[in-house]
Amino acid sequence: MSATPRLEVQLGPLKLKNPVITASGTFGYGTEFLPFVDLARLGGICVKGLSLAPRKGNAPPRTFETPAGMINAIGLANVGVEEFVRSKLPALRPYNTAIIANVFGETVEEYVEVARIASTGEGLSALELNISCPNTERGGMVFGCDPEGTRRVVSAVRKVTALPLIVKLTPNVTDIVSIARVAVDSGADILSLVNTFLGIAVDLPRRRLVLANGVGGVSGPAIKPQALYLVHRVCRELQVPVIGMGGIMNATDALEFMLVGARAVQIGTANFIDPASSVKILDGLSAALERMGVEDINEMVGALRGAGPSQEFST
Amino acid sequence: MNPTSPPRLHDLSARVSENRDLGAAHFLLTLEAEPIVASAAPGQFVMLRFAGSLDPLLPRPMSISDVIPSDAMHPGRIQILHKVVGKGTDRLAALRPGEHLQVLGPLGKPFSIPSSAAPASVAVMVAGGIGVAIFPFLVPALLGAGLKPLLLFGSRSSQELVRKDWFAGQGVEVRAATEDGSEGTKGLVTTLLRETLSSPREVAIVYACGPHAMLKAVGGLVMASGVSSQLSLESYMGCGIGACLGCVVKVRRESDFAYARICVDGPTFAASEVLWE
Question: How many Å apart are CA A265 and CA A230, to the nearest integer?
Answer without folding.
Answer: 14
